[in-house]
Design brief:
heterodimer; A: mainly alpha; two-stranded antiparallel ribbon; 2 strands; 73% helix; B: alpha+beta; D-Maltodextrin-Binding Protein, domain 2; Dipeptide-binding Protein, domain 3; 2 domains; 11-stranded mixed β-sheet; 4-stranded antiparallel β-sheet; 16 helices; globular
Chain lengths: 324, 516
């Protein structure tokens, strides 16, 4: 276990180093940050002076080594737009993103498992066919379309739900949450559904196929022969074995969701990290872009590690120490 | 249900929770929020919009480009180089300090040290205090645009911004990184900042001691939220989540117009959209007949009607109507037959190839306009190799004048047509900074001379004639392709009377907004 963690840590460092190198090299191709910092009538001399001051005119290696030294001390640079350390800005916005991802994850869990299980148990029923048809449409509709359609129906036409932003939030031990106010909760509904809509069809199908496999296995047949109640077979024995791959995929997908909330957040003006990233690109806020890319890399490394560890707990036959 | 509501209202009133009938609490959605609370940090539309809420300028533009006094009550020209402003008495800053000439002079000096604003104030030598409520501004040469530049002087609270905090000067202007002035503010404006969360919202509250008691404005609390996506902004207005939005994309205007209890207000704008034709990179463009052919081949009307959905005014010159130098005779000249003939005369009957670049997220429908232009040019045999890209990538290309035709839009910082020539059509000059955005490499000594002398002519009528001559020369020589002036559009609930407070400059005077 311990050696596994050490190995993982070493791998993570290598991965993070490569990511930082890539994130840093693309900087020069993102555009000129000066354009967003100064007005149209500022002279070229003034621009050059400001470039010198920002260190943009230094050679690549100087810039990169300066960045690396600072990064090792926990300083990922200062955002041009927010005028605050980039890491701090990202962590501030992360709360909004995590709440959105949590909302979406809850919807996914409570919708995909019942539907997946139902369609596996009753493969020939009309409802199953409907579920499958709808989920294949769902997988092919882009998320911004889903989001705009939801907004049109529930905000403009029915006027039930708010159209943008987080609404009212309360501070609970340093965490700004929207789950505890009525207004904040209503604001969470549409963005959560939109974000969930990307992953939902995938999970329904995953649960269904795993469940089908479990149902056709020897032990289920044996249990049936033994005369156990069907409910017990389905929901205790088969479901348990279905969950193992679902947890693996789910863990990795949660990491993906945190990283790819960009579209949903942009459509709903959700003040999270995805929207922050897109805006940073538009404003050529290079320190923030680099910090975000590194941050997303970190999320993937961490979630993968956690999933591997969880795997060991759920299925003790998996020997993580043996795994690279 | 109705009785329940009445009961509730009575209960609320009894509890003293009901607001006075006049006060209003509104939410306004823009596509971006102010970068900083420091009015001198960045010269941009966003900064000026904010300045008109937190501060007051010496004078401000009316809807038809006239001037009305704000902090300055009266003004007069003393001689060719000196201009005097008489300041209003009894004006209070948010901090409680009284405004005097010292604050105005201090603000002027700070403007001259600001990287972004110093260019606007470069014609001036100094500003001096005559007495507590009189200041004089002195230019090094005779300068005609004193009132125009005075719209940029928003007096700041000298006492509030003087001193040190954490070892740093409070008045420091910092372009990147934080400063005292970028997060603290004391102006004379109708609003104060109650709270600000950058990128999420700014909450403005009415300043109780505002000097302008005659202002009809009754907005007590104004929340400004940025909503980046056009579709979401419109949805927020139509669903009633916000009371007013800007901008409204051309495609959404019909929807806003047809919606119940929501109004669309449009104003003809002053930002010109043009293509420049680079005479250095493509020899064909050196020939005035070819340039004329290009201008004649482009159907401005179709672009405005089809692509802009009528959301623009077709242009034949740089400055819009209302600017000095505007000549009503210089109209768009679409004529395909003539264009073909001109190509033939120039010896390009078979056409030629040229490269074109345009941004795709800077101006309204920029990429679509470029595509339409390219296909219009193909009708006279010009094969266009078009590249469109996000503005972040576009500007570095523009700095290199990387294509034969480059799109550029321009808004005159001085609301005066000489400014267009100074940056877009005068001969490039590294030292004076003239022609800094002239990617057409157009150069005409007469134009240079006329603009320079117009900038030293304090007689408005004479000056107008000179600038008209400039527009005529540019027209005859087809120095650039004028497309249109972008309109401005706002959407608002019908109980907001926004028509009187919006203007072509895009600084709505929210202090005067009446909500019924």
């Amino acid at each position: 276990m311990f050696t596994f963690l050490i190995k993982r840590l070493f791998q993570a460092l290598v991965v993070m180093f490569v990511i930082s190198l890539v994130a840093f090299s693309i900087q020069d191709n993102l555009g000129d940050p000066l354009r967003e910092l100064v007005g149209q009538s500022v002279s070229e001399d003034e621009r050059q002076a400001l470039r010198d001051e920002l260190g943009l005119n230094d050679p690549y290696m100087t810039k990169y080594s300066r960045f690396l030294v600072n990064a090792l001390q926990g300083d990922l640079g200062t955002s041009y737009f927010f005028k605050r350390p980039a890491a701090e800005v990202i962590f501030d916005k992360l709360q909004a993103t995590l709440e959105l991802v949590f909302g979406a994850a809850v919807i996914i869990v409570f919708v995909s498992i019942p539907l997946g299980v139902y369609s596996a148990i009753h493969p020939k029923s009309a409802i199953t066919k409907l579920i499958m048809a709808v989920s294949s449409i769902g997988i092919s509709v882009p998320v911004f379309l889903t989001a705009i359609m939801l907004m049109y129906i529930f905000s403009i036409e029915l006027n039930w739900l708010p159209s943008y932003g987080r609404g009212e939030t309360v501070n609970v031990m340093g965490w700004e949450t929207g789950f505890l106010t009525m207004d904040g909760f209503l604001h969470l509904i549409l963005p959560s559904i939109s974000l969930a809509s990307i992953m939902l069809p995938l999970f329904i199908r995953l649960v269904r196929s795993e469940m089908l496999e479990a149902l056709s296995s020897e032990y289920v047949k044996f249990a049936k022969a033994k005369g156990l109640s069907l409910n017990k077979i389905y929901y205790v024995h088969a479901l348990k074995n279905t969950m193992l791959p679902v947890i693996t995929v789910g863990g990795v997908q949660i990491g993906t969701m945190i990283a790819y909330t960009i579209l949903t957040e942009t459509v709903f003006q959700w003040p999270g990290t995805g929207f922050l990233f897109l805006e940073a690109i538009n404003r050529v806020d290079t320190p923030l872009i680099t910090a975000y890319v590194i941050f997303v890399g970190l999320i993937f490394v961490v979630t993968n590690t956690i999933v591997d560890l969880l795997y060991g707990f759920v299925n003790p036959t998996v020997n993580i120490t043996g795994k690279g | 249900m109705k009785t329940l509501k009445t009961k509730l209202a009575i209960a609320l009133m009894a509890a003293g929770l009901s607001f006075s009938a006049a006060a209003a609490d509104i939410t306004v959605a823009y596509d971006a929020d102010p970068v900083s609370l420091d009015p001198h940090e960045q010269l941009s539309g966003g900064t000026l919009q904010m300045s008109h809420m937190l501060f007051d300028p010496l004078v401000r533009f009316t809807k038809d480009f006239d001037f009305e006094g704000r902090i300055a009550e009266k003004w007069e020209r003393v001689n060719d180089t000196t201009f005097r402003f008489h300041l209003r008495k009894g004006v209070k800053f948010h901090s409680g300090n009284q405004l005097t000439a010292d604050d105005v002079v201090w603000t002027f000096n700070r403007l001259q040290s600001s990287v972004d604003f110093k260019n606007v104030f470069s014609p001036y030598e100094k500003m001096t205090k005559v007495d507590d409520y009189t200041v004089e501004i002195v230019s090094s040469e005779p300068y005609p645009l004193v009132l125009q530049t005075a719209t940029y002087i928003f007096p700041m609270d000298k006492k509030f911004y003087t001193g040190k905090t954490d070892g740093k000067d409070k008045s420091e202007i910092v372009k990147h990184g934080s400063s005292y002035a970028s997060t603290h503010v004391s102006g004379t404006g109708p609003f104060t900042v109650a709270s600000r969360e950058q990128g999420v919202k700014v909450v403005f509250e009415r300043f109780n001691d505002y000097w302008d008691k005659k202002s009809p404005g009754n907005v007590d609390k104004l929340t400004l939220v940025p909503i980046k996506e056009d579709a979401t902004r419109v949805a927020a207005l139509l669903s009633g989540d916000v009371d007013m939005i800007h901008p409204v994309a051309p495609n959404d205007q019909k929807r806003v117009k047809n919606a119940k209890n929501v109004d669309l207000v449009t104003v003809s704008g002053t930002r010109i959209i043009t293509f420049q034709m680079n005479q250095n990179s493509n020899p064909a463009l050196k020939d005035v007949r070819v340039r004329q052919a290009i201008v004649h081949a482009i159907n401005n009307d179709a672009i405005v009607k089809k692509i802009m959905k009528g959301f623009g005014t077709t242009a034949g010159q740089q400055g819009p109507a209302g600017y000095s130098g505007y000549d009503a005779d210089l109209v768009p000249r679409y004529d395909l037959k003539k264009a073909k003939q001109l190509m033939k005369d120039a010896g390009y009957e078979k056409g030629f190839k040229l490269s074109m670049m345009a941004p795709n997220n800077r101006y309204v429908n920029d990429a679509k306009i470029a595509q339409a232009t390219a296909s219009m040019l193909s009708k006279i045999g010009i094969k266009v190799d078009l590249k469109t890209m996000p503005k972040a990538q576009y500007w570095p290309e523009f700095d290199l004048c990387a294509a034969d035709m480059m799109m550029i839009g321009w808004h005159s910082d001085t609301e005066d047509s000489a400014n267009f020539s100074e940056f877009l059509t005068m001969t490039r000059d590294e030292e004076t900074g003239r022609g800094a955005y002239n990617c057409g490499q157009y150069s005409n000594a007469e134009v240079d001379k006329l603009v320079n002398s117009a900038n030293a002519e304090t007689d408005t009528a004479k000056r107008g004639v000179m600038l008209q001559r400039v527009e005529n020369i540019l027209y005859e020589e087809a120095a650039f392709v004028p497309l249109h002036w972008q309109d401005l559009a706002w959407g608002a609930k019908s109980n907001l009377q926004i028509d009187p407070i919006v203007n072509a400059l895009n600084f709505p005077y929210f202090g005067d907004l009446v909500v019924k």
